[in-house]
Design goal:
alpha/beta; Rossmann fold; 4 domains; seven-stranded mixed β-sheet; 26 helices; 46% helix; globular
Length: 626
């Protein structure tokens, strides 16, 4: 293989035994560096762990690497365990962090850890997991970090060097192998200079058909159209149905491939798969997290066949999943970030824009931005598109489970761990002080509630250190003997309750069972006690309240109802139902893995998992069928 200069540089450092952080644009070829580590490690019988930020990306990497390296590849993601003793093990970063804290000796045989999308460390919800993984990284493991373009990559590497006392080489590539050419649609006109937007009439709305016709005439297909809402993706796909991008032969080919894939992945009767069929015949599709994971894979495979010409999708399609196209379109330059809508981050923009331009096929990639100057100022649009990518900032918010694991190891010395964090490295004195106060407040709360007694973890503390994210609610229920008394239905309902996050204004379904009402009442009373304590100690964000919107659907599923019928009991999208059921399985496994859980509870959980983990919910089945 002929490597680019930055790839050669990174591989040179790796061959000398150094840890490396690579910062390069999307589509530049960072994966080739990871593949070098995989092939040389397999050859030399070293173990490698490959972590990815989302399960979909973990699954895709498993498929890709397995086709190259066969049974040398395994995967472990909480709801999937295939070939877990393999020399190369793919896992989510959460699983890796938990292994470091709970069973560090299980990592002895691994020499390298590859962090894909390492800039995820500044994700507000999950960045802590990356930070903890790097702080507590076993001394014998070397790092390959793969990152989007970030301006403070050297600061990030200096932090890792400072806590592990060994050099970390930084490789920066600013150039894309396929340059990007930008176009702008405003007032229903298309121009290739952003300053020309000042001269356009804003009164006329941007029409989708104008943009897609323009792309088609300019040989700009296939194209990915990024939207920031699932319903919007579907609506725009159907709005574009009057376009037909396929000739007779291509139509015949795509229909045959689609039908075969739908049969293979058992989604022929799925309503969404049937609704999408007329779009597929025209070379159009949509893709978002509300769809069944199996149907999303069907669409991804169709896209790689190059017969799909326009795909309307949400931004997860840009994260690591290798789906390049000739053009990328942006529905908007603003999106919802956690609590409010704001302008796109430049780094997020380029994560998506970077899908334009196929290496070895296209001389340049084309990016089309639909700009509505009533929604975004021209200067703000320029900043999004031509500004400097945002720096990576720590999002450290140490969980109760992490504090318990650290206390077991270091007792009161655990406060010496905080100065090793990226948060400490980047923060001002007052921010450092507040972070330490928060850790101290959590530790005092754990002691008050009896998780720690006379300097050691109590039985409840031993239980809590295994259940990341939902420690207090589940541990209080465990101590009150609630979990022990539940049957398989109750355990399924409670697991779905702790993981579920309702959408804004989403209502509880009618007709929840008497058993669920009782569980809901106990959970809410327990949660109120926890929240009251957290408020007193000024701990934020508060622990998560359980929500029982999926309880009727979960009970139907546990009774053996088929998936289509079960969906009648919920207004949650089918893909989300699958995701939450899989998360429920992972939470039940964590409860069962607690050393102090009784054999009776473990047996009931095993049965609950067996019944939940079937048909489309069974993630392992989907991967094994590949």
């Amino acid at each position: 293989m002929v490597y680019d200069k930055f790839q050669q540089e990174a591989i040179g450092h790796i061959n000398q035994g150094h840890s490396v952080i690579v910062s390069a644009p999307t589509g530049a070829g960072k994966t080739a560096i990871a593949e070098h580590i995989l092939s040389t490690s397999i050859q030399n019988r070293f173990g490698v762990i490959y972590t990815a930020p989302i399960k979909a990306l973990s699954n895709q990497k498993f498929r890709d690497f397995q086709s190259q390296f066969g049974d040398q590849i395994g995967i472990l993601t909480g709801d999937v365990s295939i070939n877990p003793a393999a020399p190369v093990l793919i896992m989510t970063t959460e699983i890796f962090r938990n292994k470091i804290l709970d069973e560090p000796t299980s990592l002895d045989k691994y020499t390298w850890i590859i962090f894909d999308e390492i800039h995820y460390i500044d994700n507000p919800e999950r960045g802590t997991v990356w930070e903890e993984s790097l702080i507590f990284l076993p001394k014998h493991m070397k790092i390959l970090g793969l990152s989007a373009t970030i301006p403070n990559i050297k600061q990030f590497a200096a932090w890792i060097e400072s806590i592990h006392n060994k050099p970390v080489q930084v490789v920066i590539e600013d150039k894309r192998p396929v340059p990007l050419h930008f176009f702008f649609q405003c007032g229903n006109e298309i121009v290739d200079k952003i300053d020309h937007l000042k001269r356009l009439k804003y009164g006329r709305p941007n029409k989708l058909s104008t943009l897609i016709s323009y792309l088609n005439q300019k040989d700009g297909l296939p194209a990915i159209y990024f939207v920031f809402g699932r319903r919007r993706a579907e609506e725009l796909a159907f709005e574009s149905m009057h376009h037909n991008f396929l000739n007779g032969k291509e139509k015949q080919q795509i229909v045959e491939i689609y039908n075969n894939l739908c049969e293979r992945f058992d989604v022929k009767t799925d309503r969404t798969a049937q609704d999408m069929f007329p779009l597929i015949q025209r070379g159009i599709a949509y893709h978002h997290a509300g769809m069944l994971p199996t149907l999303k894979e069907v669409i991804e495979r169709l896209f790689t066949s190059r017969l799909l010409k326009v795909i309307f999708t949400t931004e997860t399609f840009a994260l690591g999943i290798n789906m390049p196209s000739r053009s990328v379109m942006f529905d908007d330059l603003r999106k919802f970030y956690g609590k409010y809508v704001r302008n796109l981050k430049t780094r997020d923009f380029y994560q998506m824009a970077g899908r334009a331009g196929r290496r070895g096929i296209d001389k340049e990639g084309f990016v089309y931005c639909r700009v509505n100057l009533h929604r975004i100022e021209l200067e703000d649009a320029k900043r999004v598109i031509f500004g400097k990518p945002e720096e990576v900032r720590s999002q450290l918010n140490t969980s109760y489970a992490t504090i318990l694991n650290l206390y077991e190891k270091y007792q009161e010395e655990l406060f010496k761990v905080y100065p090793l964090s990226l948060h400490y490295f980047q923060s001002r004195k007052n921010e450092q002080k507040e972070a330490l106060r928060l850790i101290d407040a959590k530790l005092r709360l754990l002691k008050e509630l009896g998780y720690i007694h006379d300097g050691v973890l109590s039985q409840k503390g031993q239980f809590a250190k295994s259940v990341y994210g939902y420690e207090l609610i589940l541990s209080e229920l465990y101590e009150d003997n609630v979990l022990e008394q539940l049957d398989e239905f109750g355990l399924g309902v409670i697991a779905a309750g702790v993981v579920f996050e309702p959408r804004k204004n989403q209502r509880m379904p009618v007709g929840i069972s008497k058993g669920t009402r009782s569980i809901k009442r106990v959970c809410e009373e327990t949660y109120d006690r926890i929240k009251h304590k957290e408020e007193r100690y000024r701990i934020y964000p508060f622990s998560k309240l359980p929500y029982f919107h999926l309880s009727v659907a979960m009970e139907a599923w546990l009774r053996g109802t088929n998936f289509e019928k079960m969906l009648r009991f919920t207004d949650v999208d089918e893909g989300e139902v699958v995701r939450y059921f899989r998360m429920s399985i992972q939470t039940l496994r964590e409860i069962s893995d607690a050393r102090v859980a009784s054999y009776l509870l473990k047996d009931k959980i095993r049965e609950t998992i067996r019944v939940i983990n079937r048909d489309v919910v069974d993630a392992e089945k989907q991967l094994r069928e590949n």
